[in-house]
Design brief:
By secondary structure, the protein is an alpha/beta fold. The protein has 2 domains: 5-11 and 253-342, Aspartate Aminotransferase, domain 1, CATH 3.90.1150.10; 17-249, 3-Layer(aba) Sandwich (Aspartate Aminotransferase, domain 2), CATH 3.40.640.10. Helix content is 41%, strand content 17%. The protein has 14 helices and 13 strands. The protein has helices at residues 17-24, 37-50, 61-72, 86-89, 94-97, 115-121, 151-163, 175-182, 186-190, 216-228, 237-249, 254-269, 295-305, 328-342, and strands spanning 5-6, 54-58, 78-82, 102-106, 132-138, 168-171, 195-199, 210-214, 274-275, 285-290, 308-309, 311-314, 317-321. The protein has a 7-stranded mixed β-sheet, with helices on both faces. Strands 9-10-13-12 form a 4-stranded antiparallel β-sheet. Strands 1-11 form a two-stranded parallel sheet. β5 (132-138), α7 (151-163) and β6 form a beta-alpha-beta unit. α12 packs parallel to α14. The radius of gyration is 20 Å and the shape is globular.
Length: 345
Amino acid sequence: MHDIVDLRSDTLTLPTREMREAMARAEVGDDVWEEDPTVQRLEAMAAERMGKEAGLFVTSGTQGNLVSVLAQTRPGQEIVLDADAHIVNYEVAGAAVIGGVQTRPVRTERGFLTPAQVREALRPANIHVPPTGLVCVENTHNRHGGTCCTPEEIAAVAEVAHGAGVPVHLDGARLFNAAVALRRDARDFARHVDSVTFCLSKGLAAPVGSVVCGSREMIARARRARKMLGGGMRQAGVIAAAGIVALERMVDRLAEDHANARALAEGVARLPGVSIDPGSVQTNIVIFRVARPGGAEELVRGCAARKVKIHAIGPAAIRCVTHKDVDDEDIRRAIDALAEITGRW
């Protein structure tokens, strides 16, 4: 149990003692010169986990997505992706501002494009329209409540895109959550895409960073894009060391976060004035609707007064995210806090 139960995001995880010790003793060099041995070890480990030729350590998932877009598109092109994708909603229009590409958002049922939707969204050869430069898939899907798509679903989308000569990028910020939930190797999800990025600093609990993986040629272009964005780091092995521990120690325990998320969803489903289908919770994100006008903000304030932090993602929706710094007793405290507030409605 913790003094404050913080369910706002899994980005709030604190590094483990083992991570801090690894950071203190990390062997370092200048990574812009590609001479940091700890960064090189992390990148090689990540590439091996994804089944790709090479990896690139970046500061964040947003930077990982942006360098992946820049490395595989040119100005004036278009990227096809789900309308609720992180790239569309939470990355400050970087693809448009810096990459000169526009997004073509497509509404989906669970956050995942179908092959038919991709086929329909691909642009024809026409001087009036931007050519399709990239198809992006997000797994797990943040705004759809941590939903997972299978490797087979990704492969089907990639087949359509590749048939038109269009590469595919996988925003796998929480890819290891999908791998654990579906009991599949992470390589299975990345096998048919041209690039993939995953975060070390969410459920895996490292303090900083993500890794982009792809072919050697694609990673070379992404490295140049990272430098252009000011993302070239010097003795970055200090933080890469924590990422290595994250990959070695923190993946399997994600199942605990999933179990806590299901317990939270089941508790919330019993409360008045809110709604959620516990069966829809696949990983560590719980999103529930609030019927009462102003109820979402009321829940945020009331829970905060009870040392439970939750996040309103709109006027009628709450998102809670479980992680290593939330245990089963914390989940009970959160449910009790929500019950006290909704019990007066």
